[in-house]
Amino acid sequence: MEQLTNENLATMAMSLANLAVKGTASAVNKKIKAIREEKNIDNLRATYDEITNEILLEREEAVRIAQAYKSEIDRIQIKDEDIEHLHKTVEKILEIINKSQMKEAEKEGEEAIQKARETAESLNQIKDLISVDTLKTMQLLGFNYKAAIGDPLTQLCALSILNWGSSNNIEQ
């Protein structure tokens, strides 16, 4: 996946470099200087149309490249709102797990309750790591959450579904 991203970025960089090397401004200046002496209005109009079209095409290409770069960045970065949503979701999940563990521990005795409290404390420390500041800092350092967590999670789900389908077929 990262290989594809790197190839896309390299392709966009080459396109941007080609666009920059073209030197539209100097080419336009040369054309304008060349047609200053032109007396034929049709030739003059055609040349100006050609210049305008060339500038518009290059602008479209620059906008396309910028949008592609933005798309790549958006694909990798997690927005603040998404991080806050993730934090709230993890918090709810941890509360459910903690409550469940405490109920089980109460049945087993004081030692189990103490162990459940320690586990709850450890899980809450994990929750505290999921903050906008922490996750943004890690992203600035180059960590790609979507690739690191999302790709393996997607593969795990896919394998589970495939295995589940296989085990259901065997039982029948």
Walk me through what this model shows.
This protein is an all-alpha fold. The chain has 3 domains: 2-76; 79-141; 143-172. Helix content is 90%, strand content 0%. The chain is built from 7 helices and no strands. It has helices at 2-22, 24-35, 41-76, 80-108, 110-129, 132-140, 145-171.
What's the layout of helices and strands?
Blueprint: H1 2-22, H2 24-35, H3 41-76, H4 80-108, H5 110-129, H6 132-140, H7 145-171
The number of helical runs is 7
* SSE topology string: HHHHHHH
**Overall pLDDT:** 81
Helix/strand/pairing category: mainly alpha
Radius of gyration: 29 Å
Number of strands: 0
Shape: rod-shaped
Total domains = 3
Identify the notable features of this structure and list them briefly:
90% helix, 7 helices, 172 residues, rod-shaped, mainly alpha, single chain, 0% strand, 3 domains
What's the quick description here?
The chain has helices at 2-22, 24-35, 41-76, 80-108, 110-129, 132-140, 145-171.
